[in-house]
Amino acid sequence: MEKLPTLRETVEQYGLLAKKSLGQNFLLDINITQKIIRSSLAAQQKADFSDSQVFEVGPGPGGLTRAVLAANPATMTVIEMDKRCIQIMEDLRQAGYAQLNIVEGDALKFDFASAAQTSPHNHVVSNLPYNVSVPLLLGWLKQISLFESLTLMFQKEVAERITAEPDHKNYGRLSVVAQLTCHIKTLMNLNPNCFVPAPKIWSTVLLFRPLDVIPTTEILQKVEKITELAFGQRRKMLRQSLKAYDNLDAVCQKLGIETTLRAENLTPQQYLLLAQNL
Ligand code: SAM
Fold first, then answer.
1. Is the pTM value of this prediction over 0.85?
2. CATH code assigned to 7-210
């Protein structure tokens, strides 16, 4: 393995000024990226990624990429939109990491389902570009059985929406869909000064692992529809926000759900029951 330049040297060498339009806030301290990967592996009771394929969205200058590579993945696939970072990834591969596959393009259009067929164990790791973090997460949650884990960095308020419990102001559609598909663990919060450039807000790393029983795609779509209607009018009672369902009263009575409740009062499990019965 060749000795690699530091991440700061890499950024200087490529004149990699961060672009706001690509949600770029870089992690240039390898101690932090290693801590993220170590804590994710520890929470999964894994020593390393040696039996696995790891996908990374937006490797940027490669701080997290290097930390994943140090955990010895069988293969690692990085998907990056910024051409400047593609060359950095090529250099990393040349430096001795032949297991690195480099894909230039938009991760929202990447076919994870096909790529995951090449390995029995798949994981996603990403310091997500904030402007597409929610659509990327929803895309993975809809096909969560492809993955053993997702280790993802979000803006702290997005992470709070994902992990919020019923009756909390942050509780919403994202909380319901995420909690119906995954165990979610908060691995750490990161101060803005950990990033270059420093964002205005804190960030949070979450670990998602699929639940043993995952709702079918059809039921999840129905959960999305019901939560869209319910949280679209979150101050209204269910009998108003879900009135489009003719059988609402009968189903709620059968399930013991009061139609005078509001969207934020229902647990994810109750939304699942509604989706299975309405
Ligand atoms: N992983 C690096 C780090 O931690 O320093 C960079 C993280 S930065 C928050 C997000 C990265 O995602 C950037 O490198 C950006 O170019 C890339 N990116 C933005 N939108 C993308 C998309 N739709 N598909 C793939 N990569 C994207």
1. yes
2. 3.40.50.150
